[in-house]
Amino acid sequence: MSRRPSKLQRVDLPALTGRIRGTTGFGFHVVGESYFQVELRHIRNNMSVAYDNDLEAFIVTEPNNLHDENACAVYIDSFKVGYLPSDAARDYVTQMRGNGVFGESCFQIRAKLTGGFGERPKIGVMLNLPAGAD
After folding, report:
1. Domain regions of the chain by residue span
2. pTM
3. Lower CB count within 10 Å: N or C terminus of the chain?
4. How far is CA 11 from CA 21, 43, 75, 78, 79, in A?
């Protein structure tokens, strides 16, 4: 089994397609964060958890993803930090297509980090997607 290199690498995100205005809460769980703990620790170490845990995130569709043409990656501070779950990604892409958005897109949304200490050593990501989006 190969491991990802631990070197941090910011990426250039596609042009912003739009903004998603979510709920006041953060009830949507991102998946795959265990593969991006180096990036998440970097983000966490460069913020004040007490004051700065309302982060700008981006959902970027990956229509050329070899594993899932509906894959939607989540980025914070230009670092990939996880994905929308596959069923939610499929619904998200379907909704975007219904609104005339095809191919690669990039939508801004709010996010919070969870865990990272104590009994929850891995850092997770929560989004404030509107109700019914998950």
Report:
1. 18-127
2. 0.88
3. N
4. 24, 14, 9, 5, 7
Q: Which residues pair with 80 in a beta bridge?
A: 75
More confidently predicted of 5 and 129: 129
Q: Which of 80, 127, 73 is nearest to 104 (CA)?
A: 73
Task: Enumerate residues 6+ apart whose C-beta is below 8 A from 133.
Answer: 28, 88, 91, 92, 95
50 confidence band (pLDDT: 50, 70, 90): low
Task: Give the sign of the dihedral formed by CA 98, CA 128, CA 124, CA 45.
Answer: positive
What does residue 121 show for φ and ψ, rounded to 5 degrees?
A: -70, -25
Q: What is the spatial distance between Cα 60 and Cα 15, in angstroms, rounded to a whole number? A: 10
Residue the block writes with tokens 């939508």: 107
